[in-house]
Amino acid sequence: MNFWQPKIETMKRSDLEDLQLRRLKETVKRAYDRVPFYHQRMKDLGVTPSDVASLADVRILPETRKGDLRENYPFGLFAVPREEVVRVHASSGTTGKPTVVGYTARDIETWSDMVARDLVMVGCTKEDVFQNAVNYGFFTGGLGIHYGIERMGAMAVPSGTGSTRRQIEIMIDFGVTALHCTPSYALYLAETVTDMGLADDLSLRVGCFGAEPWSDRARTELEEMLNIKAYDSYGLSEMFGPGVAFECQEQNGLHIWEDHFLVEILDPDGLPCAPGERGELVLTSLTKEAMPLIRYHTGDVTFMMAEECPCGRTSVKLHRFLGRADDMLVVRGINVFPSQIEDVLLKIPEIGDYFQVVVDRKRHGLDEISIKVEMSDRAFTGELADLARLQKKVEDELKSVMKIRSKIELVEKGSLPRTEGKSKKIVDLRDL
Predict the structure, then answer these.
(1) Predicted structure pTM score
(2) Is the CA virtual torsion 324, 178, 121, 220 positive or negative?
(3) Which of the residues 173, 365, 421, 428 has an alpha carbon 20 to 30 A from that of 198?
(4) According to the 3-state scheme, what is the secondary structure of 168-183?
(5) Plot region of 7 (φ>0 → left; ψ -120 to 50 → alpha; else → beta)
(6) d(CA 276, CA 230)
(7) pLDDT of residue 226
């Protein structure tokens, strides 16, 4: 079993909690002393850093949401002088101002080590040639993974995004053995490789995929089409970026690095969830210097897994992410999650991996939900009776889960847009 930082990765729970508490106290004091936003929030709650005496005391601390980052744009949440910030990243800012995050030199070191830890955990070594096929620039996925590749000593191939055929050419010419990209793009790459008849020319053995939820069936297809082991990656720019949590070779839950993050799973009322109970992931950074965040609501839905991991790592595991809390659609008073729709679709063998949900409000004022669903190769017979039968089957099974009828549009494989980034599974036209 390979470890990057074995003492930390296999630390006894009591020692880990001692380390967390020490770092929590330091983080709260840093935020209170240096970030006016947190100083005022704690003052409003009647809390001071000295009130934090145990890990459970995190619940008396103020919460932070994405809107708080936007309101303090660009540098209002920094806890260090501007000259100590060596890098910034930012979200795309598609809704309002982007969220900006900053890093000290030590933050970059911490982040690089964390990603190196992830890559070694899935079996990468200095012998690997690692292609990083995501956006560089403001998006944290590019440089975040890149620095981790270099830190653990593999050869980094910063191919970025664009020109799928060129990406495949690079894989073959350079003997690429490991790949990082979004799962949506990985599926498109796999389809293209298959269509080009080049699957046998690849040297790939490891794939790391993140930035959006993806299914077990997608994992199976990627592993078969690319001849790899496919691993789930989780991160968010507000907590460094990629590498916050990662699957080990057991492929059963993501280890979240508790020496760097204090983890809470909260229900919609803000109460803690028991292991196995799904809720929103809320994180407190324990090692970030430039921009510490306290009780940050990630918007991502998951649950804690109670069992110990056979890999020997002692950090808690999170179940593969089930979607986003803010992805929930309210249609005619019914709560609908894309993950629910995906779960139903993936159990139907005639259905492919891609779908898109469109919600619209018709002139009579009622919300209508329609779902474009790609068929698998085996389903496309061209017979109208077969299509009608499949359409009704999908509609009935979705209605039994969602309690609301949706209109299903069956489309050929390859009809829905592929993307190098996150796939757009929800189109809500009601506010347009």
Answers:
(1) 0.83
(2) positive
(3) 421
(4) HHHHHHHCCCEEEECH
(5) alpha
(6) 24
(7) 97
Segments making up each domain of the chain, as ranges: 1-322, 328-428
Determine contact, residues 7/1, Cβ cutoff 8 Å: no
Residue carrying the six token digits 């991996």: 353
Return all residues near 272 (Cβ < 8 A) that are at least 6 apart.
59, 264, 265, 266
Residue 365: the pLDDT is 61
Place of tokens 């089409």: 225
Q: Are 342 and 321 in contact (CB under 8 A)?
A: no
CATH assignment of 1-322, among 3.40.50.720, 3.40.50.12780, 3.40.50.450, 3.40.50.2300 = 3.40.50.12780
Query: Could you say which architecture CATH assigns to the domain 328-428?
Result: 2-Layer Sandwich (3.30)
User: Do 107 and 78 contact (CB within 8 A), yes or no?
Assistant: no
| Mean pLDDT, range 338-360, rounded to an integer | 85
Mean pLDDT on 61-66: 96
241-276: per-residue pLDDT in tens? 999 999 999 999 999 999 999 999 999 899 999 999
